[in-house]
Amino acid sequence: MIAHRRSVLAGLALLPWATAARAETPAAGRLVEHPTMTSAHAADRDVTVWLPPGYDDRPDARWPVLYMHDGQNLFDGSRAAYGTEWGVDEHVTRLQASGQMRAPIVVGVHNTPQRLRDYVPADLISALPADMRDDVQAIYGGVPLSDGYLRFLVEELKPFIDRTYRTRSGRADTAIMGSSMGGLISLYAMIKHPDVFGGAGCVSTHWPLKIEGLDDPVALAPWRERLVTAWTGVVRDGLPRAGDHRLYFDRGDETLDQFYAVFQTRIDETVRAAGWSPERFRSLVFPGAQHNEASWNQRLDVPLTFLLPPA
Asked: Distance (Å, rounded) from C-alpha 208 to C-alpha 138?
């Protein structure tokens, strides 16, 4: 049973269903590769840095930074896990040119075979009732590694990026974003390190609402309610003070995204109850959008301009 549950969620958390539609504007800027970056806290991984247009021509300028998970899927379809990409460089190039956002340095942090364990928040697993904890943890393949992954980002990668590139290193100029499980770890990053990350973009955030063996609605409903209650409690208790950060959620209503409504609604209510205003908190539904890179590419302008609005 546990093996089946693990395989189901692993497949769902990683699965895209369509080919990405690239942004129309050709990308400028420059990619820099940092292969096999080592860490005392997490598995070694590649990091790809995109320097926006103007970086090389303005030696006195400093730039905000956007950290993004699943970095191999961001810039180049030939390197992406499924042959599709987000087109981040094309989107930012166009949005910068039209004055709709502050163009950031984008740090694409590649995933590893331990992706699920890296991205599932340890505090969320710990908050589960004891009789649920082992089953839910087994879905992700073992003990969460997310606290170590965040230590890599905060204690090792960010200092390296700030030393190597001309960054604006403060909280207001540092954001983090990802999709699916990458959305979940982005929320967790802001909760655990609110002094570092001033904004979190959580795209099609993957909430574990259904597992094999609990298809009966009568059995699923109380299981789901206990999980939602525990996890919303962690979010409520960990949210930064309203007014100092930006938090973005979205989802579609087809394929895997159609199952997120119940959980996402409760999270939205929790954030609003904490006093977050529409200027600082946004949660959107995109009708017809699926759980894949094509959908994320098509709506990427929305989180980008929300997290990094013009000065």
From this structure: 12
